[in-house]
Amino acid sequence: MVALSFAASFGSHMVLQQAPARASLWGFAPASATAVAIELAADAASTPIAVNNFTAQASLARFNATALVWSVLLPAVAAQKRPDGSAVQYSVTARMGSEAHATLLDVLFGEVWLCSGQSNMAFLVENSFGGADLVQDANNHPEIRLFTTRKLTAQRPLQELGESTNRGDWVDGVELPWSVASNVSISMNAPRAGGANDDNWLYMSAVCYLFGRALQAARKTPIGLISTNWGGTAIQDWMPPAALDDCRHVSADAAAESLAAEGGGAEGGGTEGGGAEGGEAEGGEGGVRAAANLSTCLPCCEEPLPGQLCCCPPPGCAIPPSCPPPPALAEGAGSGSSLAEEGARILAEGVAASRVATHLYNAMVSPLRNVTLAGVVWYQGESNGGAPVPYACQLPALVKRWREGWGGWRRHDHGFAFGVVQLAGDVDEKAPIALPIFRWLGQTQGFGSLPNTKMPNTFLASAFDLGDAASPFGSVHSRHKKEVGERLALAARRWAYREPSITAGPILQSAVADAGRRRVVLTFREVGPSGLVLSRMNTSRAHNMTNWDGTTPFEVCADGAGAACGAMSTSFDGAWSLAPRTSLGADGKSIVLSGFADGGSGRGRGGRAEFPPAAVRLKGKHDVRVGFDLDAAVVADVGELGGL
């Protein structure tokens, strides 16, 4: 007989989404049940704090022949503090008559975030830089609560975690039940015995936890973190069927022409659905031209220039041997040797990650849809890095369809907030141009920043400057997870929580040629009251094919140099060369490239290497380095410049 219970995604020690949201609860009851009452009560130690005690009858619906599903929407409950400064604790009880009941204890109200993606999201806290100290420090954050799903697949969208696998069996769908943050709950690096569908990165996600830690420190409210991820997986695995349908028509030409027509370029877009300035995105000629280059460069039949992508050849055309192969979901292939190595590692450990589109969404996301959220953070893309054009459709489609299918309350009309980590450099990537193009086109749809008009109510954390060539886990797995988590938290505060004093990172606004003074001026917005600072980086870990010398991250390209000044060309083909001098503008929001010899017209770009020697960052109160991938924002046609 089915017992009265809460769904697997709820448990003691959890966090429920606070006001103005109305948190949802649900669970199971036997088919004979006629009524289920839900009681919410603050613990006795919370008095005399004004709290919301609540009793209501749950709605009942048929689940199968032996079980019903009960559900209830709680009133909006604000996170409150006890006199000693700790969070008010609640109990939640489901009752069926006078005897049967199920109770959750030590429940807090606060902000609930879901974290998803592939191995860089799964990457453990203890494996990060400073991991041992971070693990012990978790004992100091009892108002951060953690939950991790088990790695499972399913052929249809499930209502409950572990409801069924592809064999039709019910299994335990939870890897880490709701737990108070501690050195134990945050650090478990051993596979479950007999778990053929688990790798050895189980919990806790470093990026997820460190994002939550930074957010909790700033917002002073409990944080609930739900981690659902699987290494080596492609975005298609996480897309619901409707999202896949949204992108079945996408080809390289169609996607590039669409971006060009809609102005994907330097400007970010409007407020709510765009940048800080408001209004529609204004791509400008540079953005249009860069998108058009992808239309002609991505689908190709003959041998490309070094670093050129050919992931979408026309029918009958073989992929040139120097190009990375496109993702082949049925076989689990990615692009670049680092992904192949990760796949080999996973297979060697007996992991059977699904390579059938939607199967991870079905088993690991769909059952969470009735958990009310503040938002989602997403760290994925390495397995799709060779296909930026399809990804430019797939990521917005995933965001849209996740939001549409989610239950509970939504913070904005655009749906819950959605944060994206822009991929870091990877020296094992065989096509050096692949990641810059993927960051620009695939992850930001040709705008170079989030939010934009294609992805409203989103935010971006750049990891462009956080490559880790010496990582013992492979260079695709940078250990700089603390920086990524903190940048995500800053971006969430700026865009999801609308904190007016927060600046999350510079966004390129324009690139203008000053022919008389023989220079190019790059102007940024979102620089904060203290402006920009140029920070030199460690070139000893740079890609061994770059020409960086540590003094400037910016390149220029002169016409007539023997190769096109296009988005797809590399610094190795002779067209692009380092700007002689790089300096900050007096206004604190611009960068000046100067010292050019006589030449013709040209373009400017920055930070093409997988591990650039310098990055633009903010200075002042929030002194957190924010990598800026200029080429990921725009390949700017700077026009006639006598000194270029």
From TrEMBL:
SUPFAM superfamilies: SGNH hydrolase. Residues 262-278 have a biased composition (Gly residues). One of its GO terms (biological process) is carbohydrate metabolic process. Residues 260-286 are annotated as: Disordered. It comes from the Eukaryota. One of its GO terms (molecular function) is sialate O-acetylesterase activity. Transmembrane segments: none annotated. This is Sialate O-acetylesterase domain-containing protein. It comes from Emiliania huxleyi (strain CCMP1516).
